[in-house]
Specification:
Blueprint lengths: L8 H12 L5 E8 L7 H19 L3 E8 L38 H16 L4 E4 H6 L4 H9 L1 H8 L5 H4 L5 E3 L11 E6 L4 E5 L3 E2 L2 E2 L4 E5 L5 E3 L1 H12 L3 E5 L3 H13 L6 E5 L2 E3 L18 H4 L2 H9 L6 E3 L1 H13 L7 H4 L13 H11 L4 H12 L1 H6 L1 H19 L10 H16 L3 H14 L4 H13 L7 H8 L1 H16 L1
Parallel strand pairs: 1-2, 1-11, 2-3, 11-12, 13-14
Antiparallel strand pairs: 4-10, 5-6, 6-9, 7-8
């Protein structure tokens, strides 16, 4: 079967699923979302990766369903750094769907985050079934699974306890009741349980960070949304109830996935195939901190990068660690804009429809244009792009181009403006810049300009690389940049002369 398909990982994963369940009429693929904060492009990236496997299954003649599951019964452990609502402190420990919405527009904190996720998912045009933990625990969806797990509770405990640190084992129990008095979920401690009645007796005497239980003691049913399983057992519950066949997860969850699979087998179920992916790193090679908000991360990729660039980032070898930097955004966006429709990756990156024909326009061209003319008015920038890439072509694809302009302007404001500098050149180096001015007066041909720069450098015994650095410093305030010939054509000779004059005046002042 695989001989008919490119040697790409979505086809390989689809083949593994089909070989394991050859007669199943419809496969269930799941991905999860933590509703304790705003969803971001990384959240959507997991949905996209799962969709790639579903797409491969469809091409192989198999049906599938993607479930996007929100863990909105989880308690809020800390106030997200990007939410200005200090009053949330009094609600720490409560399930997020039982905390008021900080923005005042939805039923709860969790419902607000779920709504943001659904809005982001709609933009991807990926068909998926949304499931809420709050609903599944409350409306009976999980009831039979909960009863079954309570009958196997001791077996679950025996599987989990050896994987825990010794200091955390005492008093640990897989079920987390929601306290009837204070509403917290992480401060309750189960003292006993009745597997037949599916009830627990608990005390609200635990604590985490600076959050403490209220001391209440009671007995309650485990049904009707009155509690939840701790997350590894919760993962197993979802797999068991929904009959999940495939789920991806980060490399840091390999052991957790093994444990959840073992719980499913204990219940008599058939655990899914799983595929781990490597985590993203900072440009310095460190694990990205979600709380720091510094640099490029999946949380803020969407400010500078397109959905298509994220699609490529998520598609490209998930098992390989990738460092995220400002240059990464440019690299992946440029690749999506120049990828040939014949490339086997193309149907996955542009699953929603063919890419507009922009005549070879790159994202880096737009960023360099914004930098060179110091202009953030999209209408002005559209006029410049029209001169180089055709006004008719730019107008025909204006919504797409405007999106690229919006991202490029953000990039310019966040990464380029703060680092722009005026180069310190010798008189001899300024003399070479004057020769460059004379060169662009003699010709409008981009290749002749490019070649002419090499000729000027060599005629004066200078390495061409150094001369290009000089020109980039004068024109863009940086050490690197685009092909000079094409850049002159894009920006225009008048603007080039103005940039040189301004840089010379700053150097002399």
């Amino acid at each position: 079967m695989m001989s008919n398909y490119p040697n790409l990982w979505p086809y390989q994963e689809a083949q593994r699923i089909i070989e394991r369940w050859p007669d199943k009429p419809r496969y269930i693929l799941e991905t999860g979302f933590g509703a304790s904060g705003h969803p971001h492009m990384g959240t959507i990236g997991e949905v996209v990766r799962t969709f790639y496997v579903a797409k491969a299954l469809r091409e192989m003649g198999r049906e599938s369903e993607i479930i996007v599951f929100s863990d909105d019964m989880d308690g809020l452990r800390k106030i997200p750094t990007n939410i200005d609502a200090p009053w949330l402190q009094e609600h720490l420990g409560k399930p997020v769907t039982r905390i008021p919405d900080p923005y005042g527009c939805h039923q709860s904190f969790g419902h607000h985050m779920d709504a943001e996720l659904l809005e982001m998912m709609a933009k991807t045009e990926i068909q998926a079934t949304f499931r809420s933990a709050t609903d599944c625990y409350a409306d009976g969806t999980f009831d039979e699974g909960i009863r079954h797990m309570f009958r196997h509770m001791q077996g679950i405990i025996d599987l989990v306890l050896p994987t825990m640190r010794p200091e955390n084992r005492e008093g640990w129990f897989p079920w987390l009741p929601v306290c009837e008095n204070c509403g917290k979920v992480y401060t309750t401690r189960v003292e006993s349980y009745d597997p037949d009645a599916v009830t627990v007796t608990y005390s609200c005497t635990g604590s985490f960070r600076d959050v403490h239980g209220c001391g209440y003691r009671g007995t309650q049913s485990a049904l009707g949304g009155r509690g939840k399983f701790f997350w590894k057992a919760d993962w197993a519950l979802r797999w068991y109830v929904f009959g999940v066949n495939f789920e991806m997860h980060g490399k840091d969850l390999i052991d957790s996935a093994k444990l959840s699979k073992a719980i499913v087998r204990l219940l008599g179920g058939d655990p899914p195939n799983t595929m781990f992916y490597e985590l993203f790193l900072t440009e310095e090679g460190r694990k990205i901190s979600k709380s720091s908000g510094i640099g490029i991360s999946m949380e803020n990729w969407g400010r500078w990068g397109t959905q298509d660039s994220l699609n490529l980032l998520m598609f490209r070898n998930p098992r390989q660690q990738k460092r995220l930097s400002p240059e990464t955004v440019i690299q992946y966006t440029d690749e999506t804009l120049t990828m040939s429709p014949e490339d086997p990756q193309y149907p996955f990156i542009y699953y929603h429809g063919d890419r507009p024909d922009l005549g070879g326009l790159r994202y880096s061209d737009i960023i360099n244009l914004v930098n060179a003319i110091s202009e953030t008015d999209p209408d002005v920038l559209l006029e410049y792009l029209g001169r180089s890439f055709g006004h008719e072509r730019i107008r025909a694809n204006e919504p797409f181009v405007r999106e690229l302009l919006e991202k490029a302007i953000h990039y310019y404001e966040d990464f380029i403006l703060p680092t722009r500098r005026t180069p310190e050149l010798t008189e001899a180096e300024w003399a070479l810049v004057e020769e460059f001015e004379q060169l662009i007066e003699r010709t409008d041909d981009a290749e002749e300009i490019q070649t002419g720069v090499f000729d000027i450098a060599r005629a004066h015994g200078m390495q061409p690389k150094r001369f290009f650095q000089i020109l980039y410093g004068v024109l863009l305030g940086s050490d690197s940049g685009p092909r000079i010939g094409g850049f002159v054509t894009l920006v225009g000779k008048d603007r080039i002369r103005e940039l040189i004059r301004t840089a010379r005046e700053k150097a002399r002042s």
